[in-house]
Amino acid sequence: MTVIESVVTRLQVIMNEKSISQYDIHKNGGIAKSTISQILNLKHNKITLNILYEILSTMGISLKEFFDDPVFDGITE
After folding, report:
1. How far, in Å, CA of 44 to CA of 74, rounded?
2. Domains of the chain with bracketed CATH
3. Quick one: DSSP state of residue 73?
4. Residue 44: what pLDDT?
5. Do 5 and 12 touch, CB atoms closer than 8 A?
6. pLDDT, tens digit, for every residue of 7-49?
């Protein structure tokens, strides 16, 4: 699994656990709907730390909590 695939997988798990939609992130975090959609649909091969931080802040998750997950143990590139 690549870095971006791991990030997207982790984002989707958190969104499902917290019942947060793409619209919720847009509405509460001020992040463009197109940006969120492109990230979650793997249309980008990278994500900036600032955008990730904004998304996670909207969901009430710290960067440490986000990256402290086994999904990041299997990164191949």
Report:
1. 20
2. 3-65 (1.10.260)
3. G
4. 83
5. no
6. 999 999 999 999 999 999 999 999 999 999 999 999 988 899 9
